[in-house]
Structures are given as structure tokens and as C-alpha cells.
From TrEMBL:
GO terms for molecular function: ATP binding; ribonucleoside-diphosphate reductase activity, thioredoxin disulfide as acceptor. InterPro entries: ATP-cone_dom, NrdE_NrdA_C, RNR_lg_C, RNR_lsu_N, Rrm1. Heterodimer of a large and a small subunit. It is an enzyme of class 1 (oxidoreductase). It catalyses: a 2'-deoxyribonucleoside 5'-diphosphate + [thioredoxin]-disulfide + H2O = a ribonucleoside 5'-diphosphate + [thioredoxin]-dithiol. One of its GO terms (cellular component) is ribonucleoside-diphosphate reductase complex. It comes from Zizania palustris. Its EC number is 1.17.4.1. It comes from the Eukaryota. The lineage of its organism: Eukaryota, Viridiplantae, Streptophyta, Embryophyta, Tracheophyta. Belongs to the ribonucleoside diphosphate reductase large chain family. This is Ribonucleoside-diphosphate reductase.
């Protein structure tokens, strides 16, 4: 029986022993001599694909060698050489406790069958997965490695049916559960007792106070954890957690996802156990997630939980530049992304009084920042260092700045690992529009332009023009076209509108805001003595799509596809509850956070900004059967962000009633009764009681200066299996690379709908691949589904800008808005940029394939 199954396995797949040179070919062995001679059976694996092959070949010492077919059938490939088939009986696996056990292929099949409960028996075949896994067995393989192979194998079959994705996740999670302790408190104890293998010194992974709190409340915390919720993660979400988020001891993962969530919850709330448990359950049930640095570091000895830092160049001097550089390095070490403004650095050729020399400008300086970003990654290898550099377009080095990321030109004039953004005043846009001249200045010779906005900036700029202080005067459209060239070639610079950002900020009473962050959603005040900080969390919007007449406790944790959308609705009341909890959490993080630099602590304690975002807006529309660009979707988009803003304000006011308003509240627009939508001249709906909220804020103030900042959610949306932030899907089909190769992944909602309709076939999959993930030309798919599954390339980009404007009146920071163009030109880009600027949107990023 063992031999029969083993031979059958080789018809499907073969993985050589890891020590063999990776030629990735294998011998076809058939139990049926007639089949071996038939054309249908003559396939072998080559480079991860089934390819035609002669049956009369076998592998010997890593090579294909001619042989008689009968001799080939009497052999199998083992350790790179042809061995008698009886050798299979001598193969063994290494169990998790170190014991060796003879291979029993039926055990693999039984394990996969057990993990397939509730899945489609017709479309998801665990035996088929087991057969492919069996072919990868080699002498000494561990059971954990077999599970990893089984999970990847099932994930690679997802394009056949979505249930394979569920099976892949179950295998991977089950494998981790078998390799880790069940008890949360015992796991924390192991991490706290960690000893560095090289130094022999204690190196606890858990903070002293958090450890003591968990030990004191061990029984209650252990009893609250529900490990079955780990199985709600999809395969790639779980692997993202395993790779970067779950804590490791000696390179081995010791946390389960539920352990991580409880660690984060206790790390935020400390001895407020009730709040910690509430946070745990909301995150565990996938209603929201905190940002990556919070998941990385909460509860650890150095709990740096903030995502974004905004830095103002300390001074236009060697001391100021290198103090700023050091601050960037220290922040990046602690897993923070950075936005830094360089408007005040003197231009090339400017006089240096201290040395009687001239400046080399911003380019050589930014190359030093570039090398620092490469060297100091985030959190010790968790993520690459990320610096975004902001410059105003009146700076005399603007043209050189625009070239820094280009792929051609002299290497000493390039800094390709930084991200670039322009802080654009309205005056520049007006002069481009009117085809007028634009003057370029050195900030050392024309000081103060970076420190003002609106009419004050315009008056000072024109004054310097009259005084002849410009280093160069060029047509404004020349600079504009240089910007567009850079965007077409590199995707940068990002465009942020300085006057709009300042005019609509609740921090405008603090001074002129000079930059945003890497992802353009944070708009906060900075100065040489204050580094702006923001703590983030994102709401998983698809979770709030409910089925009518189904109690929330009985509701499935994940809905998929648009089938049944007429019986679904969006739960605004639950969104209100979750938003309030997030506001409390983020406010608490400000107090328990570790600040890598003192200027960041000073800023955060004084102004207490937070950033609430979303993920999975596109998934939400699909679940409700709404095309992304439909009027219904646009209305829901507004309703969601109105709800988030209202309840964030309400929760912040409740906190202010208990703890007092933030230090710099007086003089802010909100202190004068001006809310964000008032700045847009928008009247909110009557869904919530705005008059009562205004009255309460007037009495008690707010605990937080800023509240809403939809961020990209690149990693955390992958963890929860949602599309990024409020973005449409970029494609309905794409490839994923894993250790065992590359395979096709299909939009889970589309795959579900087409499977339910009975039209999903390999031929249809190949047609969608040929159309680069578009379904618009598929005659098998009805028009209503085509509308729902439009990709971002098939939606008018002005519609995306208009939807950003619709929600913008409820966003008191900014939003990370991407626009996509397949065949960009100056005309298209100019039209889109000016449309966004005229709609007084704060920021926009251009994505070009």
C-alpha cells in the first residue's frame, strides 16, 4: 500500500532533498506500464511546472539518464539517486519531540482530512494535497516541514477553489499550535526568561511591569483567549504574522496570534484588565487592528508604538543637519517611518559665512540621509528604513531634487532609497495655470517662506521678487513639466498642497505646518524643538457587513463574495462602538509609549494627536453588491467616515471630561466651535446628534487635537485579508511567490462568486490572466458582476478624487490617496492634479504601472 501510494504521488509532484542542486526535475513512475507509454502520462516536473517527458528516463546522480522503462518502474528517486522502491519503507520523519518514526503516508492524509472539516468535499480534496505532499518526503524530514509543504501546496491550489485557501491556513495555524505552548501566561514566562545565546545574559522580550501584571492575572487572561480564532486568518495573513510580528526565541516563533493580541492589549492598558480584555476580543474578532509598530512592540521592554514621525530640519548648519540625521536614525531604529522637511537648507552656491565658502546644496546632504535610511532599518530588520523628504517648489535646488530618484544620470546626483514630496503653495498652482513666471529662491537669502502660508506667504514671496532676491526666474510650467516627468518615471514626488493642509488643520494655532509623513496621511505641526508623532489603528470595514436577521454572536467572522448581498447591510452602530474603543486605546498609547527622542515626547504630550484609518472599503462594497463607482458606494463612503469622525470626537470629548483637554486646545478651530466639515462648508447627515456633540465639546473640549487619518494599511490589511485602506482592487488575479515557487492567486470574492455560478474553469482563469486581471471582456460573466469587479485601472480617476473629497470633510488630518494611470501623459496628469487641487484636497500620489 505504501509503495502504491508513493508511486501515485510521483505522478503529481516531486521535491528533491534540500542538499541536491536545485535542478528540480523528477522521474515519472507509473504503476501501469501501458499508461507509462501513453502520451497523457508522459509528464515530469521541471522548474515547478509539469512538462512532457520521455517515460524511459530516470534520475541518477542528479542527471536524467536513458533506461529501460521496466527498470525505471522498479526504482524511485531518493537523495538524488535511483534507489529500489523498497527503500520507501525505510524512510522516516522526525517528530516534534525529536523521535524518529517510519513514514506512514496514510497519517498525512488523515491529518489533512481532519483539517478539512466544513469545506467542500466536492471541490477541496485533501487526498490530492496529501499525494503532492507525499512526493516531497525525504529521509529525516520533520513533521513541521511536512506541514509547511502541505500548507504551501494547498495555497497553490487556491485558484481551483477558495476552500483550498482555508485548508492552507488551517494547516499552517495547526502547525504553529503544535510547535507552541497553549498557555498565554506560560508563553509570556518563557519570553520573559529569554537568555541571549551568544552572550549568556538575560534578554527578556517582555517588559517587567507587563510580566508582573500578566502573572498576577494569569488565570483570567488565559481563560479569555480563544485559540480557534487563529483559524480565521487566511494563509498569507498568517504567514505575514509569523514572519514579522510574532515574537521569536532563538529564531523560533513562540507566540500564537492570540498571544500577540493579548500581549498588545495588556501592553496598552497595563493593569486595567477589563479594557485589555475588551481590546483583545475586538482585535481577535477582527473588528480592527493596531498599526505594525504597536503589534511589534507593545508589552516589550521598549514599547515604541508609534508609526509616523515628522521632523523639521533643526537648523541650516552642520550641527543642525547632523542632529536631524541622528534623530532620523534613532527613530528608524525604533520602527518609525519619517517625514522630514528641508525647505530651510540653503541652495547650491549660497554663501557660508562661517567658512567663507559656498554651499553644495541639498543633493549631497540627501545622499547622506539616503545611506542612513539603507543602514538603519525599522525595528532591527522587520521593515526597511523609510524617509520621505519634503521641499517647497520655490527652492532653488528644485530641479536637482526632482532628479534624485531617476534611474539615469550621474550616481553622485542620485538618492534612490528616499521618497520625495512637494509642499506646494497655491501661488505656484495659480502661476502654472496662468502660464506665468516662477521665481526660485535660496532660503538663506530669502528667509521665512517656509514659515508662513496663505496671504502671508504670497505677500512675502512677491516682496522678495520685487527686491530681486530670486536666484533664477523660470516659466512656472517648466517646473511643472519637470514634476510630471519625474512622476511618470519614478512615481514621485508626491503632491501635498501647503495652504490647504494649513487652512484645514485643527493645529493651525500652533504655527505653520511644514510637511507630512511618508504616506501623506499625517498633517501635524513640527519645529526644531517638536517632532510630531502619530499613533495609528485601522478599522476592518468588511467585518461590519451583516446579514439581516442573524444575531451578531452567530454571524460568521468572514463573508466572501457578492452572492447574497441583497440580504446584507452595514452596521453603523457597531462601527460607532469600535471607533470609540480605538480612540480610547490610541489616547492611552500616548501615555505608555516609549519615545525614541525627547522632542517627540514633548510634541505628543502637548497635542495628543491620533490617527484612525480603515481597510477593506473595496471588499465592503463587493459584499454589499455595490460597484466601487456607484452612487450607493459613494453614499456609504460618506456615511462611514461621518460615523468615524463623529464617534472619535465624542470619545475624545468624554476623555477630556475626565482628564482635561489637550494642552494646546485653546485657540484651535475646534475650541472656536469649528469642526472639520465646517471648514468644507458641508452639512452632515442626521444619522448622529451633531448639535449635542458640539454643545458637549464647547463645555469640556477634546483630549486629542487630531483624530482621523486613513493610512495605506499595507501590512495590516494583508494580515486581516482585506484590500488596502479605501483603494479599489488593482487586479483580480496576481501571482504570489513562496519558498516552493510562484503560483496564481485570484480575488477571493470573484472566485467565490464565479464558483457559486458554476462558471469558474481553468480556461476562464487563463483568460483573466491574459487580460491582466480584468474581467470586462469575459462573456461568461454577467454585466452586474463585471461592474462590481472593475479594477482601479477601469474606474475614472476623477471619481476616486471625488470620493476622497466626499470623505475628506470628515478627515481632520489627510488621507493616503493614490491615483492610477496606465498611459500617463502631461495632459492627463495636469488635468487630474488641477482637479484635485481645485477640490481643495490635501494630498495625492500617482501610481503608474
Amino acid at each position: 500500500m505504501i509503495h502504491e501510494l508513493c508511486y501515485s504521488c510521483l505522478l503529481y509532484f516531486f521535491l528533491p532533498h534540500p542538499s541536491i542542486h536545485p535542478f528540480r526535475v523528477s522521474l515519472l513512475i507509473s504503476r501501469n506500464p501501458a499508461a507509462a507509454a501513453g502520451a497523457e502520462a508522459e509528464y515530469r516536473v521541471f522548474d515547478g511546472r509539469f512538462c512532457p517527458a520521455e517515460a524511459e528516463y530516470r534520475v541518477f546522480d542528479g542527471r536524467f539518464c536513458p533506461a529501460e522503462a521496466e527498470a525505471a518502474r522498479a526504482h524511485r528517486v531518493f537523495d538524488g539517486r535511483s534507489r529500489p522502491a523498497e527503500a520507501a519503507a525505510r524512510m522516516y520523519v522526525v517528530k516534534r519531540d525529536g523521535r524518529q518514526e517510519t513514514v506512514h503516508f496514510d497519517k498525512i492524509t488523515a491529518r489533512l482530512k481532519k483539517l478539512s472539516y466544513g469545506l467542500s468535499q466536492e471541490h477541496c480534496d485533501p487526498v490530492l494535497v496529501a499525494q503532492k505532499v507525499c512526493a516531497g518526503v525525504y529521509k529525516g524530514v520533520t513533521t513541521s516541514q511536512l506541514d509547511e509543504l502541505a500548507a504551501e501546496t494547498a495555497a497553490a491550489m487556491t485558484a481551483s477553489h477558495p476552500d483550498y485557501a482555508s485548508l492552507a491556513a488551517r494547516i499552517a495555524v495547526s502547525n504553529l499550535h503544535k510547535n507552541t505552548k497553549k498557555s498565554f501566561s506560560e508563553t509570556i514566562k518563557d519570553m520573559y526568561s529569554h537568555v541571549n545565546e551568544r552572550s549568556g545574559l538575560m534578554a527578556p522580550l517582555v517588559a517587567d511591569d507587563v510580566y508582573e501584571i500578566i502573572m498576577k492575572n494569569a488565570a483570567r487572561l488565559d481563560s479569555e483567549i480563544i485559540y480557534d480564532r487563529d483559524f480565521d486568518y487566511d494563509y498569507f495573513g498568517f504567514k505575514t504574522l509569523e514572519r514579522s510580528y510574532l515574537l521569536k526565541v532563538g529564531g523560533k516563533v513562540v507566540e500564537r496570534p492570540q498571544h500577540m493580541l493579548m500581549r498588545v492589549s495588556v501592553g496598552i492598558h497595563k493593569d486595567d484588565i477589563d479594557s485589555a480584555i475588551k481590546t483583545y476580543h475586538l482585535m481577535s474578532q477582527r473588528w480592527f487592528t493596531h498599526a505594525s509598530p504597536t503589534l511589534f512592540n507593545a508589552g516589550t521592554p521598549r514599547p515604541q508604538l508609534s508609526s509616523c514621525f515628522l521632523i523639521c530640519m533643526k537648523d541650516d548648519s552642520i550641527e543642525g543637519i547632523y542632529d536631524t540625521l541622528k534623530e532620523c536614525a534613532v527613530i528608524s531604529k525604533s520602527a518609525g517611518g519619517i517625514g522630514v522637511s528641508v525647505h530651510n537648507i540653503r541652495a547650491t552656491g549660497s554663501y557660508i559665512r562661517g567658512t567663507n565658502g559656498t554651499s553644495n546644496g541639498i543633493v549631497p546632504m540627501l545622499r547622506v540621509f539616503n545611506d542612513t535610511a539603507r543602514y538603519v532599518d525599522q525595528g532591527g530588520g522587520k521593515r526597511k528604513g523609510a524617509f520621505a523628504v519634503y521641499l517647497e517648489p520655490w527652492h532653488a535646488d528644485i530641479c536637482e531634487f526632482l532628479d534624485l530618484r531617476k534611474n539615469h544620470g550621474k550616481e553622485e546626483h542620485r538618492a534612490r532609497d528616499l521618497f520625495y514630496a512637494l509642499w506646494v503653495p497655491d501661488l505656484f498652482m495659480q502661476r502654472v495655470q496662468n502660464n506665468e513666471e516662477w521665481s526660485l529662491f535660496c532660503p538663506n537669502e530669502a528667509p521665512g517662506l517656509a514659515d508662513c502660508w496663505g496671504d502671508e506667504f504670497e505677500n512675502l514671496y512677491k516682496k522678495y521678487e520685487r527686491e530681486g532676491k530670486a536666484k533664477k526666474v523660470v516659466p512656472a510650467q517648466t517646473v511643472w513639466f519637470d514634476i510630471l516627468k519625474a512622476q511618470i518615471e519614478t512615481g514621485t514626488p508626491y503632491m501635498l498642497y501647503k495652504d490647504t493642509c494649513n487652512r484645514k488643520s485643527n493645529q493651525q494655532n500652533l504655527g505653520t505646518i511644514k510637511s507630512s509623513n511618508l504616506c501623506t496621511e499625517i498633517i501635524e505641526f513640527t519645529s526644531p524643538t517638536e517632532t510630531a508623532v502619530c499613533n495609528l489603528a485601522s478599522i476592518a470595514l468588511p467585518r461590519f457587513v451583516r446579514e439581516k436577521d442573524v444575531p451578531i454572536e452567530s454571524h460568521p467572522s468572514k463573508l466572501v463574495g457578492s452572492t447574497g448581498s441583497k440580504n446584507r447591510y452595514f452596521d453603523f452602530d457597531k462601527l460607532a462602538e469600535v471607533t470609540s474603543t480605538i480612540t480610547y486605546n490610541l489616547n492611552k498609547i500616548i501615555d505608555v509609549n516609549y519615545y525614541p527622542v525627547e522632542t517627540a515626547k514633548r510634541s505628543n504630550m502637548r497635542h495628543r494627536p491620533i490617527g484612525i484609518g480603515v481597510q477593506g472599503l473595496a471588499d465592503t462594497f463587493i459584499l454589499l453588491g455595490m460597484p466601487f463607482d456607484s452612487p450607493e458606494a459613494q453614499q456609504l463612503n460618506k456615511g462611514i467616515f461621518e460615523t468615524i469622525y463623529y464617534h472619535a470626537l465624542k470619545a475624545s470629548a468624554d476623555l477630556a471630561a475626565k482628564e482635561g483637554p489637550y494642552e494646546t486646545y485653546e485657540g484651535s478651530p475646534v475650541s472656536k466651535g469649528i469642526l472639520q466639515h465646517d471648514m468644507w462648508n458641508v452639512v452632515p447627515s442626521d444619522r448622529w446628534n451633531w448639535p449635542a456633540l458640539r454643545s458637549n465639546i464647547a463645555k469640556v473640549g477634546l483630549r486629542n487635537s487630531l483624530l482621523v487619518a486613513p493610512m495605506p494599511t499595507a501590512s495590516t490589511s494583508q494580515i486581516l485579508g482585506n484590500n488596502e485602506c479605501f483603494e479599489p482592487y488593482t487586479s483580480n488575479i496576481y501571482s504570489r511567490r513562496v519558498l516552493s515557487g510562484e503560483f496564481v492567486v485570484v480575488n477571493k470574492h470573484l472566485l467565490h462568486d464565479l464558483t457559486e455560478m458554476g462558471v469558474w474553469t481553468p480556461a476562464l482563469k487563463n483568460k483573466i490572466i491574459y487580460e491582466d486581471g480584468s474581467v470586462q471582456k469575459m462573456t461568461e460573466i454577467p454585466d452586474d458582476l463585471k461592474a462590481i469587479y472593475k479594477t482601479v485601472w477601469e474606474i475614472k480617476q476623477k471619481t476616486l478624487v471625488d470620493m476622497a473629497v466626499d470623505r475628506g470633510c470628515y478627515i481632520d488630518q489627510s488621507q493616503s490617496l493614490n491615483v492610477h494611470m496606465e498611459q500617463p501623459n502631461f495632459g492627463k496628469l495636469t488635468s487630474l492634479h488641477f482637479h484635485a487641487w481645485s477640490k481643495v484636497i490635501m494630498s495625492m500620489l500617482v501610481q503608474i504601472p
